[in-house]
Specification:
Blueprint lengths: L6 H14 L11 H40 L4 H11 L5 H10 L1 H11 L1
């Protein structure tokens, strides 16, 4: 009996990879074996950078809060410590947004914990 191959499934699998590789440079977009490697690597980067994105945003928020605190004559670590002592539960994302877009509101928070 001749060997049977599941052409439908293998074609679908290759089409899925080629669709993901659309827009890649050179052979990465139209040669299956090259595209498969490029797509795999791209998915690895995507997974890793979803984790790194959270760290990078937290660093950005801390830098913005620190800059705004220094203008009020206080360091970031002192400010966060006094926030915790005062029992003010505002996260860094909101604090950074206030520091950038509403400096008077941020100043009010700093004055309340001083």
């Amino acid at each position: 009996m001749p060997r049977s191959t599941n052409n439908v499934a293998s074609r679908r699998r290759r089409k899925k990879v080629m669709k993901q590789a659309r827009g890649y440079f050179g052979a990465r977009s139209n040669v299956y074996t090259v595209a498969k490697n490029a797509v795999e690597k791209g998915l690895q980067y995507a997974y890793e950078h979803r984790k790194l994105k959270k760290r990078e945003f937290r660093r950005l928020w801390i830098a913005r809060i620190n800059a705004a605190c220094r203008q009020e004559g206080m360091s970031y670590s002192q400010f966060i410590n006094k926030l915790n002592e005062a029992g003010v539960e505002v996260n860094r994302k909101v604090l950074a947004d206030l520091a950038m877009n509403q400096p008077t509101a941020f100043k009010a928070i700093v004055d309340s914990v001083k």
